[in-house]
Amino acid sequence: MSKRIISPSLLASDFTNLQSEIEMLNESEAEWLHLDIMDGVFVPNITFGMPVIKQMRKHSKKIFDVHLMIVDPDRYVEDFAKAGADILVVHYEACTHLHRTIQQIKANGMKAGVSLNPHTPVSVLSEVLADLDVVLIMSVNPGFGGQKFIENTYSKIKDLVELKKTKGSNAIIEIDGGVNTTILPKLEEAGAQAFVAGSFVFNSDNPKQTISDLLSC
Ligand code: DX5
Ligand code: ZN
After folding, report:
1. Ligand number with the minimum distance to the CA of 204
2. In degrees to the nearest 10, what's the CA dihedral of 119, 112, 66, 196?
3. Which residues are catalytic?
4. By three-state DSSP, how is residue 47 classified?
5. Angle between helix 50-59 and 18-27 (nearest 10)
């Protein structure tokens, strides 16, 4: 059994105190840091971009797990590499030439991930799965933190576990949206390995402790 990975999402953090949030995360047991990039077109919300990531990179010791919720992400692959992304996750629904985009991410020295919206079956990844480092299954509709977890996610994880076996894939199965200490063990049981948590971590009284709780639940 591989080690459980926690990827706190900064979306729910205090953006006016980003440096102290990043320092808190440096001291935490989180292995990855999940950065949600939204363009106001693919999703009905806008967050931040490369300049902010570049500044955060100076302070953070963590692996940057960058989740692009933008149309035609291939336009910016090189820019995100330069800004300091370690894992670059694009949406299946936002890429016309997904195979090319995945190769482009790897050619720029990053791990390649693809995210699936709740309505998208895992079978769409069958021909690229062997090339992927991460599959990010959305367990809410992307765009906002603090939404209710979609129960159908469990069966999607199980389908992906089977597809991975068929295709000889080692892709990490990561789940994003509505994750907490009650849901996480069930997701792991279904086969997930990495877990994004935004509001559950940052809305808690002690985010660092909450990250430890997510690792031990
Ligand atoms: C939603 C983002 C998530 C979000 C998760 O579009 O992709 O990463 O920050 O937030 P919670 O954990 O609050 O659902
Ligand atoms: Zn995300």
Report:
1. 1
2. 60
3. 36, 176
4. coil
5. 50
